[in-house]
Amino acid sequence: MKASELRQRLVIQNFITTRSPTGAIKKEWVNLYSLYCSFEPLSVKDVIAANTTNSKVTARAIIRYREGITSAMQVIYKGKTYSIEGNPLEDKDSGIEYLTLMLSITE
Length: 107
Description:
Helix content: under 10%
Oligomer: single chain
Order of helices and strands: EEHEEEEE
Structural class: mainly beta
Low-confidence stretches: none
Strand order of the largest sheet: 1-2-3-7-5-4
Largest sheet: 6 strands, antiparallel, barrel
Distance between the termini: 32 Å
Number of strands: 7
Radius of gyration: 15 Å
Strand content: over 45%
């Protein structure tokens, strides 16, 4: 994948639970990665096809390959929060060049 195709910036966040010194449990999203990506809202045709399978996917983001990204994480792009739907899809050739994240907007 050419670097020129990855022009936008997104943040991948992970949900963590910590305990304060007083014993209170704190749950929060923390920034894990700030990455360059190719971000594309789905076309109307893709959204209609996704709706027939009860999918909420509204966008896709392509990032360089990185281990450990799961559907339990979320993406922040231009101030909007997106859930990662399903497992990230690896590229078809080597499987280690890039990942495609299927995203749905979080309400």
